[in-house]
UniProtKB/TrEMBL annotation:
Swiss-Prot/TrEMBL keywords: Cell inner membrane, Cell membrane, Hydrolase, Membrane, Transmembrane, Transmembrane helix
Protein name: Peptidase, S54 (Rhomboid) family
PANTHER family: RHOMBOID PROTEASE GLPG, RHOMBOID-RELATED PROTEIN
EC number of this enzyme: 3.4.21.-
Superkingdom, natural source: Bacteria
Length: 237
């Protein structure tokens, strides 16, 4: 047997996804091992906090429960991105890190085909997709938790967006938001999230922010449709 034959790596994950997954885990470790006052401060500024957000939109300085509203537009919008970098516990962050690589890899491969080659543009598009989906999930969460609701953290909105984009973009130039295959898998995704929303507290010991998942999924699918449209327009296919 030829000793020069290379064995495939045990973990065949793209570097950008691996780095981002590690960053999520490291950030969680830094937070949970930091002083409690710092942990509270990070959550206070980075988590999706419905009462503070809606208090800010109403021009309040202090919300009815005594929590300060966001002091300005930057503080109010920052959690739409920063919430992706915060997680509730080790199970939460590790699950999201694994899922990021699992679903992110096929999305990255599709983007590479659409762009013609792997490069900085593909990587940038992937992360724009993730954070737009995260923001989309945050918007739906806040809309359905008005004027109050539990704080929400985690990259689940961005990861759900990867799923939405994948299920749409895998059909290539024929991808349509209203196609029967995509609507079918979307219905399954929403139903599954509704079920987990009810069984999550007893099964996982934590509530499931299904609103973030659904909002992120939809935002990712729409973004994926735009990417497909742009590729078709440029290639004239």
């Amino acid at each position: 047997m030829d000793s020069q034959i290379k064995r495939p790596p045990i973990i065949n994950a793209p570097l950008p996804l691996t780095v981002f997954a590690v960053v999520l885990v490291v950030l969680h470790g830094l937070r949970v091992f930091a002083p409690q006052s710092f942990q509270i401060e990070v959550l206070y500024h980075g988590a999706l906090f419905p009462e503070r957000f809606w208090g800010w939109t109403d021009g309040q300085v202090m919300t009815p429960s005594g929590v300060p509203a966001y002091p300005g537009v930057l503080a109010a919008l920052a959690p739409f991105v920063l919430s992706a970098l915060l997680h509730g516990d080790w199970f939460h962050v590790i699950l999201n890190a694994v899922f990021l690589i699992a679903i992110g890899k096929p999305v990255l491969e599709i983007l590479t085909v659409l762009k013609g080659r792997y490069g900085a543009g593909v990587i940038a598009t992937l992360f724009v997709l993730i954070f737009i989906s995260q923001a989309g999930g945050g918007v739906v969460y806040l809309l359905l938790n008005n004027p109050t609701g539990a704080i929400a953290v985690g990259a689940s909105g961005g990861l759900s967006g990867l799923m939405g984009a994948y299920f749409l973009m895998r059909d290539g130039a024929a991808a349509r938001l209203r196609s029967r295959p995509f609507l079918t898998v979307t219905a399954i995704f929403i139903i599954a999230n509704m079920i987990f929303a009810f069984v999550g507290p007893s099964l996982l010991g934590a509530s499931i922010a299904w609103e973030v998942h659904v909002g992120g999924y939809i935002a990712g699918a729409v973004f994926g449709r735009l990417v497909i449209w742009d590729a078709v327009r440029k290639l004239d296919i």
